[in-house]
Design brief:
This protein has one domain: Alpha-Beta Complex (tt1808, chain A), CATH 3.90.1570.10. Helix content is 23%, strand content 37%. It contains 4 helices and 12 strands, in the order αββαββββαβαβββββ. A 6-stranded mixed sheet has the order 3-6-7-8-9-10, with helices on both faces. Helix 4 links the parallel strand 7 and strand 8. With 182 residues, it is of the alpha+beta class.
Length: 182
């Protein structure tokens, strides 16, 4: 296997689209810069999968929960493309051929990994707010699982609660989760 050359400039969306997937890594584009992180732990993936299943069951048919899909936050140069652990999108957006953008999204979920805590809690919080994402959930995979919810108010994602065990969230539609079952 040959390692692709690392870009020496800020990438455009066209260059991002032309990249060859990097095996065993997660790649995002932040203001034109590639950000690479290791694959998540088994615990992280378990919690992420449980969240996809629970959110999907609670919110369909209008919304669907998807794991690890590209969400384009900024299309102008330099662009930003994040790959949240879970994204809740309009059902029509699932099969659309266009880029997934904030207008398609009800909520974004990031499950924290040891190397992602600051990025998930500070940087992505600001990016998702600036893009207009209505709800942001940050999940510590534990055990115990702890979910911190944020909701968009006046262009800022403000804390809406820190939750353990059974939780009732208002994502514009009520959602009940049992975090202890994760």
């Amino acid at each position: 296997m040959t390692t692709p050359a690392w870009p020496d400039h800020l990438l455009t969306l066209a260059e991002w689209d032309g990249l060859v997937p990097v095996e065993r890594r997660r790649v995002e584009l932040a203001e034109g810069v590639l950000q690479v992180s290791p694959r998540p732990s088994r615990r992280h993936q378990l919690v992420s999968g449980q969240l996809v299943a629970a959110l999907d069951a609670a919110l369909r048919p209008a919304w669907r929960a998807l794991p690890e899909v590209e969400l384009t936050l900024e299309t102008s140069d330099p662009p930003t493309v994040r790959v949240p652990d879970v994204v809740v999108v309009r059902t029509e957006a699932v099969d659309a051929r266009s880029r997934l953008g904030p207008a398609d999204v009800l909520a974004v979920v990031e499950v924290v990994s040891p190397g992602s805590r600051r990025v998930d809690r500070v940087l992505k919080l600001a990016e998702y707010a600036e893009a207009g994402v209505g709800h942001y959930l940050v999940v510590e995979p534990g055990p115990p699982v702890v979910l911190t919810s944020f909701r968009l108010a006046d262009g800022v994602l403000v804390p809406a609660g820190e939750h353990r065990g059974r939780v009732d969230l208002d994502l514009g539609t009520p959602v009940s989760l049992d975090l202890d079952a994760f």
